[in-house]
Amino acid sequence: MTLRLLLPLVALLAASCANKVDMPRGNSRGYDSARLIQANPNSSFSDATERKVHGMIQRSLKQQFTANGKSWGGGDADLIVAYMVIYQEPAMTASYDDFFGYGRDGTQIAERAHDVGVVESKRPDYFRSAAIVVDVIDAKTNELVYRNYAQGDVVTGVSDDRRSDRVEAAVGQALMDFFKG
C-alpha cells in the first residue's frame, strides 16, 4: 500500500473526532472468544464476487482470532466482530454494512470517507479503492472496544487466491493493534 493511499484514511481518523466517530483502541486482553455479528437474515448479495469477498473476509476474521488464541463462533462469545466495506471511485462512495450492525456510526464513517477519499482527493487519475472497517464489541456490555481499518486500491482480474491474500492482509492490518497488548 502506498503512502498516497494511506493518507486519506489517516486524515479520516484524525478528523473522526470532529464527526463524533469513536476510534477506541482497546486490546484482546481478558477476552477468550469471539463471533461474527448476526447479520440481517434478509440480506443477500447478488454479485458472485461480492459473495466471495465477504466469505474471504469472514474466514480471515476467524483465522486472525483463532491464530491469536481466541475461540471463534460460539453464541456465548466474549466479543462480537463487525465489519463494513467501503468502496470508492472518483465521484462516489458506497458502503456495504450488512455485517456492521446498527447504532455505531456507520453512516458517519461512510460520509467522512467520502469527504476525504473523494471530495478532498488530489488523485488525478481514475481509481477504485476499498477499505474495511473492523469493530470489536464487548458482548456483555455492547461497548465498542476497538475500531480500525485498512485501505488499498481494488485490483481487477486477479485470481481468487490473490484476492484472498489481499483480503487477509487487510483484515490482519486492521486487527494488528488489537492483538498487541
Descriptive account of the structure:
With 181 residues, the chain is of the alpha/beta class. 37% of the residues lie in helices and 23% in strands. The protein is built from 4 helices and 6 strands. The protein has helices at 3-15, 48-67, 106-119, 160-179; strands spanning 33-36, 71-72, 79-89, 92-96, 129-138, 144-153. Strands 1, 2, 3, 4, 5 and 6 form a 6-stranded mixed β-sheet that branches. β1 (33-36), α2 (48-67) and β2 (71-72) form a beta-alpha-beta unit. α1 crosses α3 and α2 (48-67) packs parallel to α4. Mean pLDDT is 88; it is low at 1-17.
Keywords:
23% strand, single chain, 181 residues, 6-stranded mixed sheet
Task: Compose a concise summary of this entry.
This protein has 181 residues and is an alpha/beta fold.
Number of helices: 4
Beta strand count = 6
- Spans of 5+ residues with little confidence (pLDDT < 50)? 1-17
Class by helix and strand content?
Answer: alpha/beta
The H/E string reads HEHEEEHEEH
Average pLDDT, all residues? 88
Main beta sheet: strand number and arrangement? 6 strands, mixed
Helix content: 25-40%
Radius of gyration: 16 Å
Shape descriptor: globular
Q: Distance N terminus to C terminus?
A: 25 Å
Question: What order do the helices and strands come in, and which of them pair?
Answer:
Layout (H helix, E strand, L loop, with lengths): L2 H13 L17 E4 L11 H20 L3 E2 L6 E11 L2 E5 L9 H14 L9 E10 L5 E10 L6 H20 L2
Parallel strand pairs: 1-2, 1-3
Antiparallel strand pairs: 3-4, 3-5, 5-6
Helix pairs in contact: 1-3, 2-4
